[in-house]
Specification:
Layout: H1 15-28, H2 41-52, H3 58-76, H4 81-84, H5 88-91, H6 95-106, H7 108-124, H8 128-146, H9 172-196, H10 202-224, E1 235-237, H11 244-247, H12 253-264, E2 272-275, H13 288-297, E3 303-314, E4 317-327
Helix pairs in contact: 1-2, 1-3, 2-9, 3-6, 3-7, 7-8, 8-9, 9-10, 12-13
Length: about 325
């Protein structure tokens, strides 16, 4: 038995067993996110990964981290398969390969975090709280990379575990999503640090964990309880709930537009009208007739904000974007 390792991670635990534990822990992270938001799953998932990364080579650490990411994304983004079933006859067979391929690719980032952590641990031999800080730093650094390289894919960040907790999400006002993610992961792996720490070093870790959790909660509660000056901007938020299988059917665009215009014209004052992403199923900035109908329905001085796809022709071909577009009563945007 290697010193400092808990009983379930023995020196005889091979690579595939470590990857299996990491895979299960990665899948568990889905329960940390809305609509579940199980906070208890945060220390369990990340502490397991922290522990199984101890005392292994950088190449094996990458595979263990990749397995964690495969569990994390394989379940966490499985919902994108639904888009392939909108036209199941043509695209349904691509759903599983698309989810599996995207998950395997995104899992490279947790793999990089694990490899970087293992590499520094081998050279610096840090332990205790310092090891926890190192792990959280490596994790958030690769989350940042995931959110920026190859157009970026910043979904299911560690910080999202706190979305449903008003007090706990308050630090995002100062440190942003990645800073909040660092705090979430660092505090979350302290039980793992406590597990592998030498007996005489466990007291400081336990005290830090208790103080961090209490400070996080109390400080956030005080900030969220502060009075916020009221605004005089009146919002009207419209959700047509048009089924995906109907929204994109040729010929249904006008019915969808009429539904949103009808809901938007309900009695009552508003300054800003909000429609969701692709409320208009098409390139709204290219449809002059649709824009004219929208503008005619907007009172003077009122603005519509909506998500809409866009495309730009260039030397390299057509480039597509997801945009937020604003229109006023004069059809300007």
């Amino acid at each position: 038995m290697k010193p400092g390792l808990p009983q379930f991670v023995s020196e005889d635990l091979n690579l595939f067993q470590r990857m299996g534990l990491a895979l299960a822990a990665g899948g568990l992270t889905v329960l940390t996110l809305p609509p579940f938001s199980w906070l208890i799953a945060v220390p369990v998932a990340f502490s397991v990964l922290f522990i199984v990364l101890r005392n292994i080579s950088t190449s094996r650490a990458f595979l263990v981290g990749w397995a964690f990411g495969l569990g994390q994304f394989g379940i966490g983004i499985s919902w994108i398969a639904e888009s392939f079933y909108v036209d199941a006859e043509r695209f349904g067979a691509l759903a599983i390969p698309a989810v599996a391929g995207l998950s395997a690719g995104l899992a490279i980032f947790p793999g990089m975090a694990a490899m970087l952590f293992a590499a520094i641990m081998q050279r610096r031999a840090v332990g205790g709280i310092a090891a926890g800080l190192l792990f959280a730093t490596c994790w958030v650094a690769t989350e940042w990379l995931r959110g920026h390289v190859l157009t970026g894919f910043p979904w299911n960040l560690a910080a999202y575990a706190l979305v449903d907790y008003a007090a706990l999400r308050q630090p995002a006002a100062w440190v942003g999503s990645y800073g909040l993610g660092f705090l979430t992961v660092f505090i979350g792996i302290l039980p793992g640090v406590l597990t592998v720490a030498a007996p005489k070093r466990r007291a400081p870790v336990l005290v830090l964990f208790a103080v961090a959790v209490a400070g996080f909660w109390v400080g956030g509660a005080l900030r969220s309880g502060q009075d916020v000056p009221p605004t005089d901007v009146a919002l009207r938020i419209v959700q047509g709930n048009v089924p995906q299988v109907e929204k994109w059917v040729p010929g249904s665009r006008q019915r969808t537009l009429e539904k949103y215009l009808g809901l938007s014209a309900q009695p009552g004052r508003f300054d800003l009208l909000l429609w969701p992403e692709t409320a208009f199923p098409g390139f709204l900035d290219e449809d002059a007739a649709a824009r004219a109908r929208i503008s005619a329905a907007l009172p003077d001085g009122r603005i519509l904000l909506t998500g809409a796809p866009d495309r730009v022709e260039g030397d390299g071909g057509t480039r597509y974007f997801n945009t937020v577009q604003a229109y006023d009563a004069a059809a300007r945007f």
